[in-house]
Amino acid sequence: MEPFSALGFACNIVQFVDFSCKLFSSANAIYRSASGAAPAVNDATTIARTLHDLSSRLVAQPTTGPQDDEQNPRGPINTILDDLALGCRSASAELLAALDGLHARATGSRWSSFKVALLTVMKSDKLKDLENRLEHYRRQIIMALEILQSEQQSAVLRKLNGLYEANSRLQADMAYQISDVRAAILNAVAGIKDELSRQDLQTVIGRSNMSSDEFFQGLQDRRAVDIEPLVGSLSNNARAGSQIFVSLRLLKTLRFNSMSFRYSKVAGAHNNTFQWMFHNTFKHWLTSEHPIFWISGKPGSGKSTLMKFLVDHDDIPRYLAHQAGGSKVVIASYFFWINGTEMQKSQEGLLRSLLYDLLRQEPHLIRFTFPDQAQLLDMGYTEDQLPPWERHQLLASFRRLLHRGITGSRVCIFIDGLDEYEGEHEELIQIVRDMAHARVKLCISSRPWNIFEHAFGNDVVHKLYLEQFNRPDIELYVRDKLQSRPDFQVVRARHLEADRLILEIIDKAQGVFLWVYLVVRSLIQGLLNWDRIEDLQRRLRAFPSDLDDFFSHILESLDGAYRVQTARLFQVSLAAPRPLSLLNYWYIDMDEVDEHFLSRMSNLALYPQELAARQGEMGKRLNGRFKGLLEVTTLPNAEPPYCHRVDFLHRTVKDFLRTTAVQKQLVVWSMLQRQDSFVEYGQPPPQTTKFDPYRTLCKSSLAMLKSAPVRYGYLRGPGPTKDLISDMFFAAQQYEMANGASLGPLLDGLQGVILQRIKEFPTQQPGYPWANWGSSDFLTHAIKWNLVLYVRDHLLSTPPSSPLKLHLLDCALRGRFGRNGETTLGPNPQMVETILNTGPHATLDEKARFFAAPPFSAAALQRLPALASVASAGQPLVAPPEMCEGLYSSLMLLVTHNALRVKHDSEVWQGLSALMSSEELASLRRTQQIQAMRKSWNPFRRWFSTRTVAGPPG
User: Fold this and answer.
1) What stretch or stretches form a coiled coil here (predicted)?
2) 255 C-beta neighbours (distance < 10 Å), count
């Protein structure tokens, strides 16, 4: 039982024991003292009604959702409470039976006490036994309350300590609330325990032969306390603790691994730069009612650094508070990153990050924002068992929060890099506009593309182009970096031209801070080499003023011995769906010299010392070979080997490497072979073939899974393991599309590694671990990733049974994973046809039916991801086109193979009308009618085929 649920259950037992014992103790007091007062509930009907109500709460409410017993192991308190509840239910049954007897035997009669009344329907020894048992239950509940007070034994206190830790990890604003709940629970437990102990002592004294003086002396410090308010407080705070627990778990589900990666990677502002932002129209905007401020500028001008500076600046909340008029100020931010994961450049990533940022500061609105998810967690679901977040759902929740939730706070949202969003920018612009209203301000940044100029550029007051303002900052940066160096001071003392060198940098920069950074880095390298002033001038004047020309210059200057490795690593970096770890690059390097290295690897994790050595060595290799175009970033909260990620110096580097000319050059370089490396490994040099980055990415990801450290639960939910598996499936998918062949052996190797890890960490969870990642097993995961050739080869070698085939069709129709491993694309007709054409022919006449019913019903329709994104009732039914793509062709295939019949139901056809055009819908109807007619003619055809038709007379 979950600790807070156990606490609430304990409250129910306390109420029953307290009420039942008082019935007997009141009878004792009346019997021994003429001044004793009769109980407040002294008629049989009221007592029976109260007992029935209290006993009905003595059954622990089972959770209706899937359970994770590892999260809530049974402790001593659970055993005590279960035993107590069982005994109390038995005692309650006896008391209620006796009260029924009283009612039948003496309606309207009065007795001097409840106990005297019971003696009319129960034998004295049986009544005495019942009284003794209730007193024993009171002592047992006292012992349970003592456990609840114990730091070492109390699951509730451990749970509260866990809430403190979770609150700290999530940076949520719930510490005071958790502290209040903890104090209230401990106070209520202490008060209830003291009162029950006082009652127990009173019973002992009352049964002894003490005088009245001794009696009062024994109770002088133990005055009676009304236990109901204490039980109410304990029950309410147990409920509050449970709600805090659910809120923090919901907040945790919004987080994703790379959420703060881009922010942490953005360089901080140089000392004393950007101060001019608070002396122009931006400061006025902060205190105005205008909702949007747009920051634009050339590539490399420092937009992201400026946005980070603003997000972190202490004066921003102060200026906003001036306009807020005493309301709380809440600031949230998001940095798009085109070089990052799918999540880092998507609407889902934006919405999850902003919701997380806002709700951790306004945690009381978490349940309001996500009522359905909160209800599932209340029912016993774990975070991993919740349905995955969908874009439409996040958008609706975000609107609910901004427009109906945060009404007493002033909100300011910073969104960097709108141009780095991977999707329809018009749609993103509309979302930004929807966010802005009276209490929500947005500061956004992007390159000056036409679409953003049209949307935000018409307001000449609330926008700026960074290159028009950052010349003083560039001058400050260059002077600080160069003039503070002793070696530059030596040059400056000898040559007046040294200061002109600084002015030349500032003039040539044209507002592009990245160019300045690279030039200064080159000059510092010259100073370390004791360059003369003439050498420094040559360095500067040879430095291309255009970034692309500069990157081309670096590429051409790479050491020829490293060109094969450099070209291959660049291609894999461009192909990867997210920045890879240093260990990934180690294995990519290994694949160059030994393409069979995987077959010689065990599935044993690397020792920490070996892991650190490989990461250190690879970091030095990258630093020496890539001239700073690739750099290593350390993630603060990640574990080895995932904490060291390799990324491009700047987005402009990736843009440059993707140009047609550079791509051709990289392909040529990657096909070169280093003969000596193969001789060293005792292998003949292979024939020169085109390098495939997706195959190499797949191999390095599998090598990572084989060698990365493992721990309990590492296959659960989102995390680096899921990311590696997603990278591998993504690479296998891209390889199939480019080469028309499957990477079957590598995928089988992946399945082998996962099976071994499951043996090392066994679990009872069905479909583990694939159920955590949106599938039911390895094969359905391959279907979700659209690995048509792999699935075909697998089904040809192992033909599926009819039920399995229908299950696979069900999976295929539900859509495909996008680049980030979430269901965002419609079904692939090729996959549907591949499954239909293998194994037994699935028809409507078999017991195993598609979607578990012969017709395609309304319930089946609701299982399509595309329909889940359709607006609610009363709204226009419009589903995202990418989710509908392939649905019509897939349904047609199923209908023509007689594996599907769409039910003649207006609800079904109306739902389908949201997913396909009217022409497609009409075609589907006609095809189904034709199939039905053909099927109805089949018996006649078989009958005619058995008859001999006479020919014409001869």
Assistant:
1) 120-147
2) 15
DSSP state of 770: G
> What whole-number distance in Å separates Cα of residue 364 and Cα of residue 161?
20
Distance in angstroms (rounded) separating the CA atoms of residues 564 and 683: 18
Rounded CA-CA distance 424/445 in Å is 17
261-468: CATH number: 3.40.50.300
Res. 679: pLDDT tops 70:
no
Of all helices (H) and strands (E), which one includes residue 192?
Answer: helix 175-207
Helix axis angle, 533-542 to 513-528, nearest 10° = 150
Task: For the chain, give the percent of residues with pLDDT over 90.
Answer: 44
Amino acid at 484: S
The two beta strands, 463-465 and 292-296, are parallel
Residue ranges covered by each domain of the chain: 3-254, 261-468, 471-543, 560-773, 843-943
- DSSP H helix total and E strand total for the chain: 44, 12
Q: In whole angstroms, give the CA distance from residue 695 to residue 210.
A: 90
**Rounded Cα gap, residues 63 and 416, in angstroms:** 43
State how far Cα 171 lies from the chain centre: 16
Band the pLDDT of 823: cuts 50, 70, 90: low
Specify the DSSP element, H or E, that contains 322: helix 315-324
Q: How far is residue 519 from each of residues 419, 495, 542, 544, 568, measured CA to CA in Å?
A: 26, 20, 10, 10, 27
125: exposed, middle or buried (Cβ count in 10 Å: 0-12, 13-18, 19+): exposed
| C-beta separation of 479 from 309 below 8 A | no
Beta bridge partners of 443: 293, 414
How many C-beta atoms surround the C-beta of residue 367 within 10 A? 17
Distance between CA atoms of residues 743 and 782, nearest Å: 12
Query: Among 796, 896, 886, 883, which residue's Cα sits nearest to residue 843?
Result: 896
Contact yes or no for 706/753 (Cβ under 8 A) = yes
Q: How confident is the model at residue 78 (pLDDT cuts 50, 70, 90)?
A: confident
- C-alpha angle with apex 260: 255 to 266, nearest 5 degrees? 170
The H or E element spanning position 573 is: helix 563-575
Q: What tens digit of pLDDT does each residue of 625-661 get?
A: 888 899 998 877 778 888 899 999 889 999 999 999 9
- Between 289 and 933, where is the model more confident? 289
208-239, pLDDT tens digit by residue?
Answer: 655 555 555 555 555 677 889 999 999 999 99
Residues in the chain: 954
Spell out the SS3 assignment of 821-846.
Answer: CCEEECCCHHHHHHHHCCCCCCCCCC
Using CA atoms, how far apart are residues 309 and 414, in angstroms rounded to an integer?
Answer: 11
| CB neighbour burial string for 256-295, b if at least 16 within 10 angstroms, e if fewer | bbbbbbbbebbeebbeebbeebeeebbeebbeeeebbbbb
Question: For 400-407, which contacts have Cβ atoms below 8 Å and span 24 or more sequence positions?
Answer: 400/368, 400/369, 401/355, 401/358, 401/359, 401/365, 401/368, 401/369, 402/435, 402/437, 402/440, 403/437, 405/362, 405/365, 405/368, 405/369, 406/330, 406/358, 406/362, 406/365, 406/439, 406/440, 407/439
Taking the CA of residue 16 as centre, how many other CA atoms within 13 Å lie in the half-sphere pointing to its CB?
Answer: 33
Query: How far is the C-alpha of 324 from the C-alpha of 289, rounded, in Å?
Result: 10
Strands 463-465 and 440-446: unpaired
The span from the CA of 856 to the CA of 164, in Å, is 49
Is the Cα dihedral 487, 631, 298, 435 positive or negative?
Answer: negative
DSSP calls for 491-558:
HHHH-THHHHHHHHHHHHHTT-HHHHHHHHHHHHHHHHTT--HHHHHHHHHHS-SSHHHHHHHHHHTS
